[in-house]
Amino acid sequence: MTSADLHTLTGAYALHALSDRESEEFARHLTACAACLQEVRELQETAARLALAAAETPSGEFRARVMAAIPEVRQLPPRVPASDGPALSPAQRWRRWRHRMPQLALAACLVVAMVAGGFAISAEHQVQQQRTQVVQAQSQAAALSALLAAPDARFSTDAVKGGGSSTVVTSASLRQTAFVFHGLAPLPSAKVYELWYSKDGQMVPAGLVPSTADGATMLTGTPDGAVAVGMTVEPAGGSARPTSAPVVLLPFVAT
Question: For residue range 189-215, what is the model confidence (pLDDT) as tens digits?
Fold first, then answer.
């Protein structure tokens, strides 16, 4: 393993996804690399905080109640810190983030599940594939975590035709959107769920939904100028334009 390889394994090490040999080698690397040591500490702290919302596997009934209650929870207004005020301590930032937990509990659980899913491969001959999944899962989890914690995050929830429920989370300041889903009906192998931004009366492709019943994914592109997010059933690989009516259309909530 080269020194460059070692620098890419902070996420895998923090989540105990390395083999024993790799873990020992990376631990030695940490004694000489302050940057990696700091990054590992931050990732472990983030994972521990997310785990607070996923310490127990929620029942299907509990998830349904959470999804149904999200529209009834008042969205907090954006918080703009005063330029001359004292900086918030990490503990204060964490208490502020936890205050929004009623809205974010299910989504946080799905973040943890999404990260864990990236580390399922352990066979030695698939190490490279594992590392690729680690990087992708780490990037997705970091982006979704930042989006959920954004002061101007907006939520829109609705049922999906054919089964399941969905929530769109968007932030104008971060220019990012996430799609959180639960209980999606399985599709034939020749079909896939595709996401779209509704902009100026046009549906703009925004990525494919993972072929799982529950999960979360970041949309491609930005929400600039969009008024809603829709999901359609498309041929495998996706389409440039929708070929069917949306199974769900989630309007953005005004700030």
Answer: 999 999 999 999 899 999 999 888 888
CB proximity list for 72: less than 8 A, separation 6 or greater: none
28-36 CB contacts, 8 Å cutoff, 24+ apart: 29/3, 33/6, 33/7, 35/7, 36/6, 36/7, 36/10
Per-residue model confidence (pLDDT) at position 187: 95
Distance CA 209, CA 254 (A): 25
Q: Treating both helix axes as pointing N-terminal to C-terminal, what angle do 90-99 and 101-117 enclose, rounded to 10 degrees?
A: 100
Going from the C-alpha of 170 to that of each of 34, 105, 137, 173, the distances in angstroms are: 35, 16, 20, 9
Radius of gyration of the chain (CA): 20
Q: Decide if 214 contacts 109 (C-beta within 8 A).
A: no
Residue 248 has pLDDT above 90, yes or no: yes
